[in-house]
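Annotated sample (chain length 785).
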Amino acid sequence: MTAVQPASTDRLLAEAESQFAHWDLVREVVDELIDLSLNYRQSGHPGGSRSKVHLLLALMLSGAMRWDIRRPWRPFADRFVLSAGHTVPLVYATLAVLNETLRARSERDADPAFQLPDDGRWAMGWEDLLLLRRRGGLAGHAEMEGKTLFLKWNTGPSGHGMPPSAGEAVALKLAGCEDVKVFVVEGEGGLTPGASHETRNSAWGLGLSNLVFLVDWNDYGIDDPAISSVVPGTPQSWFEAYQWRVTGTMEGSEWGPVTAAVLEAARGENPDRVPSMAWFKTRKGRGYGKYDNKSHGTPWPMNAPEFWAVRHEFMARHGVTYSGVDEPAPADAAERQEQARHNLEVAINVLRANTEAVDAISDRLVEVAGLVPERPTGFNLGGHGAEIFNDRRFTDVSAYPAAMWKAPGEKAANRAAFASWGSWVNATARADYGRPLFIVCSADLAESTNIAGFAKDWEDLPGWGWYQRDTNPRGALLPQQITEFTNAGITVGLASVNLADDPMAAFNGFWGACSTYGSFSYLKYGPMRLFSQLAQDCQLQVGKVIWVAGHSGPETAEDSRTHFGIYETGVTQLFPEGHVIDLHPWEHNEVPVVLAAALSQPVPIVALHLTRPAVEIPDRAALGMASHFEAARGAYLIRDADPDRPSGGTVYVQGTATTANVVTVLPQLDELGLNVRIVACISPQLFRLQDQAYRDSICSEADRLDGMAITNRAYKLMTDWVTGPIGETYSLSSDWDHRWRTGGTVEEVIDEAHLGPQHVVDGIARYVGDRDARHARLRRLAGGD
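Output written by the structure step:
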């Protein structure tokens, strides 16, 4: 990386100083648009939006951030994450004002540089502010889509914006684009969640010299106590303790000090190549008339005297008059909207009337856009790099190497297959494309959860090894400590970085994977949920993420119930249909198959549930069991019922120990004459992709009502396969007595869970023996005889 010399920051500051008068006019109009839009909507956050205006405009206009307001999707533009996502009225108003300078300029200047692409489809306009916090309009918190593609993450929940920003920065660094920066705006209240601590550690450990935090230090959140009354220290100590590079100013609402601090954080010397932070001492609610925590999320009542008092100051300075001054709000909704529209237009016309300011700001926006590189010299995902996502070898299991599979009779853990698959994928990607496909991390459990395979050699093909910020900056396995939440955020953040020439049409970047114990899956849900929302609505293509719930189920017996997941892994199902593919391979050979099937689908998240113990690979041919390749269909027959005898029903089994025990007792079921179909339940989402005839043959609606489940998890998590009172009566599950299990050996815990071989036989025998009784019960429930 070539460091930007101090002379550059001095030059940029000198250029900015000559424009401060124009910036201040922009600031005034931004202030007005914030207030006017919140007054009309009567919802939103005025205080923090007002206090951050100076730092945001300095970032946008000084050259500290290299971005293009006209084309916010340009792959090598700097990224902006509003971690303080509740202050999104600031971004809406600022984009509206800056876009208006281009609009006004283009009306009298035919230069294409001032034209907004696609007839302004992607440009926030002042008219859009009328739809603040309304359906189909502007979201109440920051979202990356449509007219806000300037934002590079969906934020608002406290702490959730910081880990993805680190993920974006590490993706850029891994792609050889360390000069492309990620700017994060936050307040000190947002620094108090644990994710902030985790991100500060991780960012230092990963050497993210391209990550820049801008912190609005105003000492208040939502409640009455000042943050300083419960949080010791200052921004200086909060970040220097993590060995970040820190600068800041006590004059956070003055152009000179603010711009100097922004430029120093963004473009100053950074010989240690560490993350940077600038802090700005401000007053929450600056200029609004309501201050500190009282200004957080409650605007003045519509057209209140206090609201008009600030408007009088603006009108007097600029010789304009708003509609309805000093009057209550109109009673009629249409009149209220018309008044709001008129007053927004009054404010924006103050800017338009100043052609000198319009020209200066529009020129500056074009100049800043010109700073965005077309392709950094170190970019290493070019050439044929993007073609990797269309390489069918990675999802064609018939072409997988023979060493991927285990032979019948061998004993292997399914997690070991994940390691093999990962090393083959990334080593092949290195050999053929000169890049990894996956960047992965784990909560200090890389070897334990076998995700370390993504960094290892595959036979004679070298792998990428551990990432190390100085000695191996292209390593595929990120060193992380016990930071489950931030690991998930880093993973989804890096998967959102699209460096394709046309990021709306194609994806070029990295896919990600992260792992921890299945019982801790809930710690990863927050970032995954936001990624799912972003992937649904954002017009830019995003990558994929594998969410590994490792060491799941009571099979992780010795670690006891604090560590094995029975209920917890159900969190991976808490998404809309089509947003996640849940995978539950029970044995080693199914793992590559289901990964290939899931990753071939246009779904952003793949949740892979793996277990710890080794189990014997079945001789499927000898048992009459479907091939492990059938796992790609989401469900398959372990054994069919004898068509020449009455069927006792269908048993739906999921999980490693459970399925292994069912396979073990198959001869015993035959000896007892228990004529049941047995279905391996691998993935409800892959199953729903199959044709109707196959679905009906495996799990019809009638089967769901009359079936029996055997699962190493909670019964309620099997409702994709079995539902209703019959299932609840006859199923075997780890929560059979509605209690947490304890611990011990695998055999002891499985026995306590009533999932051992004899429990399986007894449970199926009871289910079959009650066939007539349960069918009579079903008829009664349906209103029949």
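Annotation: Residues 395 and 599 are 7 Å apart (CA to CA).
Annotation: The chain has 27 helices and 18 strands.
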